[in-house]
Amino acid sequence: MTPIDDDAPPVNPAESLALIARERANLGRELTPDPRLMFWPWGFAWLVGFTFFFLRFGPDGRVIVDLPAWLPLLVLTALFIAAGIITGVAGSKVSRRIKGPSNRQGLMYGLSWSIAFTAFSTVFAQFSGDLPEARAGLLWAGGMVALTGALHMAGGAIWDDRNLFVLGAWTSVINIVGVIVGPGWHSLIVAVAGGGGMIVAGLVGWMRLR
Amino acid sequence: MTDQSEPGVTELDPVIHAQARLRVVSALSVLRDDDRITFPRLQESLRMTAGNLSVHLRKLEDAGYVEVTKTHHGRTPATLVRLTRRGRLAFDDYTAALRALLNPQEES
Q: Could you state, in order of their start, the residue ranges of all structural domains in chain B?
């Protein structure tokens, strides 16, 4: 093993620059939550949860698989809770390693999600009773996916993270397409393109960190 | 303690121009301004012994490049480390000097 505790200067400038890059990457990795843990649980939740919606509440009111009507929402909610716990634990484990403005920034971003989702839910709950079931479902799903896309884009802007911004923009665009195409198809598009997008984002982030 | 003002192309900052301390400062340069990292986490990232890291942190602290804070997290004492503005400047100058040494013709 080479001694790392001596005071010898590095051998040459090129080696010094390589050393600098290596140490920066090492600590950067320690301070970044594993993108797989941050994105895959959500991607999986969207993929499976919205597929259940598509199968039970298909296009033009079709029932593709005769599941109990309460099952899709139950599956989606359970998967969201599980994903929230996984990303919460993974994120806080990393944020404990740092003390300073970054903690406050992360907290504010996390609170933005909770507060904004509560606000949207309150608005939708006031109106969804007045709409036919399929339209009400589209209002909830379309609104929540739009909010997710917006918050991901904002996160990309805050942390100068292009990967996160692209995910947010992608989610927003496929949501617009899904809402225009209509109920049923929206669920399928969000499941495959939205959930798939998150899985890809987790993979890309992970490969960049390695 | 460093008398020379800006380390030029030929004379590199002696505080950082030691492999171990260059590694410490490089790692700390990832932190954003005013963020502090816990000592054990820094130690793990650098793969140094605690005693060894302490010695180098002391030298960097003497030069005014890092700030070491002892605090309490509940009942357990915690040591936090950050790069000072002066340390960040010295690191930026040092890397600029290295690049200049590598590409002397690109100097303006």
A: 19-95
Which residues are CB-neighbours of A155 under 8 A, at least 6 positions away?
A: A109, A161, A164, A165, A168
**How many Å apart are CA A60 and CA A188, to the nearest integer?**
13
- For the domain spanning B19-95, the CATH number is 1.10.10.10
Within 8 A of B44 by CB-CB distance, chain A residues are: 30
A14, A97, A101: residue with CB nearest B32: A101
Query: Does residue A38 register a pLDDT over 50?
Result: yes
Residue whose C-alpha is closest to residue A184's, from A71, A5, A58 = A58
Tell me the pLDDT tens digit for each residue of A46-60.
999 999 999 999 999
Using one digit for the tens of pLDDT, what is the confidence trace for A22-34? 999 999 999 999 9
Place of tokens 């969000």: A190
Across the interface, whether the CB atoms of B44 and A30 are under 8 A apart is answered yes
Query: What count of CB pairs under 8 Å joins A to B?
Result: 99
**Cβ–Cβ gap B45/A20 under 8 Å:** no
Give B34's contacts in chain A (Cβ within 8 Å). Answer: 100-101
Spatial distance between the Cα atoms of B80 and A88, rounded to a whole number of angstroms: 24
Question: How many angstroms separate the CA atoms of B83 and B32, rounded?
Answer: 9
Asked whether residue A163 is assigned to any structural domain, the reply reads yes
Convert A64-73 to b/e letters by CB count within 10 Å (16 or more is b): eeeeeeeebe
Give the ipTM. 0.84
Q: Nearest CA to B30 among A86, A80, A50, A21? A: A21
How many domains is chain A partitioned into structurally?
1
- B37 and A98 within 8 Å at the Cβ level: the answer is yes
CA distance A34 to A206: 7
| Identity of the residue in B20, B32, B33 whose CB atom sits nearest the CB atom of A4 | B20
Query: A-chain residues within 8 Å CB-CB of B19?
Result: 4, 6-10, 19
